[in-house]
Write a structure and sequence with these properties.
The protein is built from 13 helices and 4 strands. By secondary structure, the chain is mostly helical. Helix 1 crosses helix 9, helix 5 crosses helix 12 and helix 6 runs antiparallel to helix 7. Bound molecules: glutathione (GSH).
Length: 293
C-alpha cells in the first residue's frame, strides 16, 4: 500500500520513544535527511495522535516509528535502520558489518535488542528496557483523566498494549507481576554482560569493533537506563568496559541531535517526580545480578 509522500524518507516518530530514538540515530549516523512527522503517543499525552485514523492508516498497530520510503512503509526500528543502510551503503557510517562473523553478532543484537510484541515482556534485553520504563508511563497516564485514558485505550488496536496501559492507569506500575520484573532485571544484566564481553573480545571502541547498528541500540537503551535511575550499573566493576563505552556513545554528535534534543518536558518532569536525582531502588539488585553473569 503506497502512502502519500513528498520526500524520499519520511519518518513517523515520537520524541521520547526508545524505538524512535533508534530510527533518528540511524538517519543521523548515515547523514541522511528525513521529513519528520512527530506523533504524540497515547501513553504519554492525551493528544493521542498515534491512534488517529490518519496514523492508523500508516501503522495499523498505532506504533512508532514508521519509515515511509518513497511511499512504502517500513516498520520496526532495527529494520528501518538496516533498510536505510542497505539503500545508501556509501553514505555516512556503514551500520551493518560487511564480514560474516560480525554479521552474525549484529544479527544477534538485532533480535536481542528489539522491542518485539511476539516475545513476552522482560524476556530479552530489548523487551526488558520497557518494563523498567513502566513507572514513567504510569506517571504520565496518571496525569490524564481516567475517562480520557479509557476512551483512548478502547480504540487501541493491540490488546496487550490496551490492557497494559489501562492497568498502569488504574493500578500504577507497582502492581506488575513480580516475575516480569525479575525476568526483566535478569535479561538486562545478561545483555549488559554480553555487551561487556563483546567490547573485551573486539577491543572496542564500539561493540563489534567498528560502529554499527548494535551501537545505536545501546545508545538508546543506555540513555533509557539513565532515565530510570540505573545508569550507575554501567559503572559497575563487573562490567568494566561499559563506562568508557557509554562515554564514547554520548560524545557522538548523533546522541545530542537524535536523543537529548528531543527531550519532552512532561517525560522529564515525570522522572523528576518518581526518582528525582537519586538512583533507582533497583540499582543494588542490578549490581548483585551483574556479578553472577
Ligand atoms: N517493534 C516495534 C515496536 C514499536 C513500539 O512499540 N513503539 C512504541 C514506542 S517505543 C509505541 O509506539 N508505543 C505506543 C503504543 O503502543 O500505543 C519497533 O521495534 O519499532
Amino acid at each position: 500500500m503506497a502512502i502519500p509522500w513528498q520526500q524520499e524518507f519520511e519518518l513517523y516518530h515520537c520524541n521520547e520513544s526508545l524505538c524512535s530514538q533508534k530510527a533518528r540515530l540511524g538517519f543521523l549516523e548515515k547523514g541522511l535527511a528525513f521529513k519528520s512527522h512527530h506523533i504524540m503517543l497515547c501513553d504519554m499525552n492525551a493528544d493521542c495522535q498515534n491512534l488517529s485514523p490518519e496514523h492508523l492508516a500508516i501503522n495499523s498497530k498505532g506504533q512508532v516509528p514508521t519509515l515511509v520510503h518513497n511511499g512504502e512503509p517500513v516498520y520496526d526500528a532495527h529494520r528501518i535502520v538496516k533498510h536505510i543502510d542497505d539503500a545508501h551503503p556509501k553514505s555516512g557510517e556503514r551500520l551493518w558489518p560487511t564480514e560474516a562473523p560480525r554479521q552474525a553478532l549484529a544479527d544477534q543484537w538485532f533480535q536481542l535488542g528489539m522491542l518485539d510484541d511476539s516475545r513476552r515482556l522482560g524476556t530479552t534485553f530489548g523487551t526488558a528496557i520497557p518494563v523498567l520504563t513502566l513507572p514513567i508511563l504510569a506517571k504520565l497516564l496518571e496525569r490524564q483523566p481516567m475517562a480520557t485514558v479509557a476512551a483512548n485505550m478502547a480504540r487501541h488496536p493491540v490488546p496487550m498494549r490496551r490492557e497494559l496501559f489501562m492497568r498502569l492507569r488504574e493500578k500504577g506500575a507497582s502492581e506488575l507481576p513480580p516475575e516480569v520484573l525479575e525476568g526483566a532485571l535478569d535479561s538486562l544484566c545478561q545483555g549488559l554482560a554480553t555487551a561487556n564481553g563483546n567490547l573485551a573480545e573486539f577491543g572496542g571502541p564500539w561493540l563489534l569493533g567498528d560502529f554499527s547498528l548494535a551501537d545505536i541500540t545501546m545508545m538508546a537503551c543506555f540513555h533509557r537506563l539513565q532515565d530510570v535511575g540505573l545508569e550507575a550499573a554501567l559503572q559497575d566493576p563487573a562490567v568494566p568496559h561499559l563506562s568508557g563505552y557509554w562515554e564514547r556513545l554520548q560524545s557522538r554528535p548523533s546522541y545530542a541531535e537524535g536523543v537529548t534534543k528531543w527531550h519532552d518536558p512532561g517525560w522529564r518532569s515525570a522522572i523528576e517526580e518518581i526518582w528525582g536525582i537519586v538512583p533507582s531502588p533497583l540499582l543494588d539488585d542490578v549490581r548483585r545480578r551483574l556479578r553472577t553473569h
